Amino acid sequence: MIELSNVSKYFGSAKAVDGVSFSVNEGENLVLLGTSGCGKTTTLKMINRLINPDNGAISIKGKDIQQENPETLRRSIGYVMQNIGLFPHYTIYENIATVPKLLKWDTNKTRPRVMELMKKLHLPEELLDRFPAELSGGQMQRVGLARALVADPPLLLMDEPFGALDNVTRSSIQAEFKQLDELLRKTIIMVTHDVQEAFELADRICLMDKGKIMQIGTPSALLHQPANDFSRKFLDGQRLALEFRVSTLKDIWPYMRAKQTGIQRDQPDAPEEELHRTLGLPGNTSVWTALELAKANAQTNKVSFTALMDGFTQYQKAVRHE
Amino acid sequence: MVLPNIKKQSAMNEPQQSLLAFMLQESDKLLTQTLQHVGLTFISLIFALLIGLPLGILIARKRKLSGSVLGFAGVLQTIPSIALLGFMIPLIGIGAKPAIVALLIYALLPIIRNTYTGIIGIDPHVREAARAMGMSRQQILVRVELPLAMPVILAGIRTATVINVGVATLASYIAAGGLGEFIFGGISLNNTNMILAGAIPAALLAIVLDLLLSLVQHMSFRRLKMAVYILPLFVVGLSTFYLIPSAYGSRLVAGFTPEFMGRQDGDIGLRDTYGLKIHTTVISDAVMYKAAYAKELDVISGYSTDGRLKAFDLKILEDDKSIFPPYYAAPIVRTSAMKKFPELEKVLNMLAGKIPDSIMTDLNYKTDYLHQTPEKVAKDFLAAHQLLKPSRNGKQGTVRIGSKIFGEQYILAAMYSMLIKGYTDYDVATKTGLGGTKICFDALVNDQIDLYPEYTGTGLLVLLQPAPQLAKKLAANKEDTYQYVKQAFLQKFDIQWLQPIGFNNSYALMMRKKQSAELNVNTITDLKNYLDKE
Ligand SMILES: Nc1ncnc2c1ncn2[C@@H]1O[C@H](COP(=O)(O)OP(=O)(O)OP(=O)(O)O)[C@@H](O)[C@H]1O
Ligand SMILES: [Mg+2]
Fold this sequence. Notes:
The complex is a heterodimer of chains A (322) and B (534). The two termini of chain A are 37 Å apart. Helix content of chain A is 45%, strand content 19%. The longest helix of chain A is centred in the last third of the chain and has 17 residues. In chain A, strands 6-7-8-3-9-10 form a 6-stranded mixed sheet, sandwiched between helices. A 4-stranded antiparallel sheet of chain A has the order 2-1-4-5, with helices on one face. With 322 residues, chain A is α/β, with parallel strands linked by helices. Chain B has 534 residues and is an alpha/beta fold. Chain B has 3 domains: 245 residues, MetI-like (MetI-like fold, Orthogonal Bundle), CATH 1.10.3720.10; 97 residues, D-Maltodextrin-Binding Protein, domain 2 (3-Layer(aba) Sandwich), CATH 3.40.190; 177 residues, Dipeptide-binding Protein, domain 3 (Roll). In chain B, strands 2-1-3-10-4 form a 5-stranded mixed sheet, with helices on both faces. In chain B, α3 packs across α11 and α5 packs parallel to α14. The longest helix of chain B has 35 residues. Chain B is elongated, with a radius of gyration of 27 Å. The N terminus of chain B is likely disordered. The interface between A and B is medium-sized, with 23 and 20 residues. Bound molecules: adenosine-5'-triphosphate and magnesium ion (MG). Magnesium ion binds next to α1 of chain A. Magnesium ion (MG) binds next to α1 of chain A.
């Protein structure tokens, strides 16, 4: 859906973005990951023409964005700013309704849509008439997200959408975010410098350094097949945590199946349906999430923390020996 | 210049009338002047906004321009207001137009500067968010930048308004009306009530407008939205006050000083004695002659020895019914100073009878028109009359000479200074430019100065203010007037009138020579008849 080919941007002599190429498929969630100053924001801003590239071409659905009217283009792309950037003189309602107003929507259309998003993003209705300064940081980020989503754009650009949050709020918003039906069909390019967040949310990760792409691929590929020293070093230190995130129940199921069901390992592969029934979770749930759930609801859960850990350890052993 | 006891002093000279009584009596004028004042303030504010806002926006976009634009507006701001009004006359004449232009020039800087700082002070992320949402430049300006800069812009408008209320008092100098008419009229007429009747409303106006605008400035965004719609209506509404006209119909236009307007031997006498009805505007002495020359005015109330009479080719209309009393100039000295400086009297009287009208007009012409310094003119005159002696650099005390704020007085002060230094062992300190009669006289009474040149007519009508009957009788005769003021001053104030210098600088009505010849108007009665014929 989106295609960047050999895109560069210089600020004076500094190469903020240096020959970047990648493409993002429809409905895919690509995360731009890298240390501060590596050019993530600049890359993102070139996609909605907040910054014009010095070199290279960007196309959306096959159309060169340089040929389009920048305002029309931006109205059709959701953008969540690194610094939220709510309008301080607009109420929350007016903030969320910014793009509909520019698109000259009827109030009869705008109002229900705003209300719908407020509900989906767990924003209490009484905030509608408040001003941004009267909101908490987490609320402001949700409003920023609502503002980007309101016109239901097929493409969403998000620059560290959870950047300014404490860890607790952050993981709860991330969890909500993942479950948000609004986002399921969308093509999303998201920027973060938080490796855990990238692994949590990405279909593919684009790892950048000094304006260049170091590696682009699935989280598992980044973790298990680093393309270079930079990729390896970047993930070092968090490897274990990341293994938990990239491994799914499906991966470890064969190693815990016997204990959970009494069926032996050498018997034919069990269908996913069996896993789901036994563990009460879909097969693509990450081990990390399953562990968290097990720990949180030790009583009601169908599988214990220890059983999961056990399965994971055996799986790791097996993988390493392959 | 701090003059103690002004209150006490003026209470002594004035008929017992309370400020309130004065304000009630003059309530019509007061209302007109206040409305004119508010009108002037807001008309100029509107124009300043029309020019300043776009300029502020422009330099916020093209920051390279900001230095020069703000610098230029800053320079305009520093031009003294009187000078600015003076520049305007040859360009746009007198009346409301130049006053509005001058006011708008003063209002410009705070508006441009605050618009500029308001816009550049906006969080760049907010501006970027506006772009990212797909707003055009125009939409960003109207929906984001201006509303966010509004509190700062309003602060600028507030400053501009308060400045304008103050400067608008000077509008009365160029026939644009406003509360300055009372203030400056009161100063020259030695009428404290009149000064206060202008000054108090002007101050109240400034305070009230400042307060109102500060309320608007500190409103929340929610209320500000409404205020921003209401404010322009409010401003436009107030500016229409100025249009409430003072209609009068005559072909000739007169310009009288505020002092002349309020005097028995001025405008009042012209009406009472001559029955003169002419469309009259109030204007300052400083620009009056120029305005007559530029055909902005046809009849003005000048002084008979004014150098500009010669410079601007004006003719004095004969006062055939003698309403203007004689104004013979003589030094007046506090008795205590005479005792302290025994040789003073002899030296001051050296000028007695030495300067007749024609010579004084010529001397004034040299300062006012040829721009020679009063010192040079004084020195040349003394030298020509073999009176000049080099200074003895005396150390036996310092004589303090005062003067009112116009050329003739400067010249006389300079002559006295040279004579005292040359013929005695006293040193001299000159305190020239002591505003009008009132300030000069109060300074003399309160021992701030020792002497200044005064005019018999002024002493009689402004400082002594005898009953109108007596005044009229005295004013008819030059010698009677002199003797009366001499005695009364000694008794009342312990101040001595020395011998008259010779010339009579009385009030006079003047016209352009050419016009006077064309209309065949040579006396004030001719003028009245001409006006009545229309
Ligand atoms: N407007 C600008 N002018 C000059 N240099 C800039 C500008 N914007 C960005 N840069 C530089 O370009 C480089 C990349 O900036 P960018 O904002 O894309 O980094 P980033 O990866 O988003 O970093 P962070 O994680 O801190 O947000 C940085 O070195 C930055 O200093
Ligand atoms: Mg960034």
